[in-house]
Amino acid sequence: MIAFNCPPHVGTEEHYIAEAIANRKICGDGVFTKKCSEWIEKQTGASKVLLTTSCTHATEMAALLSDIGPGDEVIMPSYTFVSTADAFVLRGAKAVFVDIRPDTMNIDENLIEDAVTERTKAIVPVHYAGVACEMDTIMDIAKRHGLLVIEDAAQGMMSTYKGRALGAIGDYGCYSFHETKNYSMGEGGALLLREAKDIERAEIIREKGTNRSKFFRGQIDKYTWVDAGSSYLPSELNAAYLWAQLEAAGLIYEDRLRSWNTYYEMLSPLAEEGKVELPVVPEECKHNGHMFYIKVRNLEERTRMLAYLKEHGVVAVFHYIPLHTAPAGLAYGRFCGEDKYTTKESERLLRLPMYYGLQQEEIAYVCEKVKEFYR
Length: 375
Ligand SMILES: *Cc1c(COP(=O)(O)O)cnc(C)c1O
Known about the structure:
Bound molecules: pyridoxal-5'-phosphate
Largest sheet: 8 strands, mixed
Order of helices and strands: HHEHEHEHEHEEEEEHHHHEEHHEHEH
Strand content: 5-15%
Helix content: 40-55%
CATH class of the largest domain: Alpha Beta
Distance between the termini: 22 Å
CATH topology of the largest domain: Aspartate Aminotransferase, domain 2
Number of strands: 13
Radius of gyration: 21 Å
Number of domains: 2
Structural class: alpha/beta
Number of helices: 14
Shape: globular
């Protein structure tokens, strides 16, 4: 059987976890957390990177830093993971959903402005499959309307837009290191801060509302409760796993891109025959091979294809159920404009196995089965 996902493992994780244990420091913010944050800062150019317990929590921190509260509105796609909306809904805000572009499955930047009201506080672009949203347009709209931009870059580490790292373009960026993502620590994430002015408050929010980080740096002689916050820092055991992955980041990146390119080449004939559609990566975007999806004719064909692949030992899966159609989406959000593509395109999309270490022969087998389905 060919699994859909396999958690990334490069072989040095055990060594670093043992080191964390030997250091007698397994709670958060030890040497591994520091190494990981500094590595991501260097890689992305963010002013500061704070490791978190998940991307969901990084987004919650961004919502707190943005002072988003009851009555505020946040613009985002409906075609996304629940966390994108949850982080703001938890603060009492309303999710305002905008349709996606059918080519990249990202929020349609040309529809955002129509959704802006005097209550709008932020725009949350989601870089689906590690392919960037049209960030220049989004940043320009935000600037003209005085809005914050919080990037859900859960799938976007090592991807760029016009040479800039995803997650470091907006005011805040959120990464995920869940086991289904390119680089993992089991459960975990990171918050990227573009502006140095946000560092102090972000550290306080992450440390239960205390100025403990300052205390550990010797900048104050005792720490105290100074703001509302929570516990968003991951354990050193998780950070040690992530460090192994970051050290091998190039290896993982190359491996995934090779798999992605193989899929693309092998399935191109089917696309030329008009049987399936392949992912579109705009010129200005460099992606990270996070996901390989195809789009088939409709929901009925997708259901049959998923069953056919399963029968032949291939685990393929569909993806998001649009949030505006879910019970919580109806309660906490509203769709602005027409749902021209969100529902239709989401029903046609099917993700093929993709993970670090996936073999070329396995990809060939999967592609053969997809082609066989159409014979
Ligand atoms: C995975 C994912 C998340 C959530 O990440 P966690 O680290 O599991 O909280 C949020 N948004 C998107 C787009 C994701 O793919």
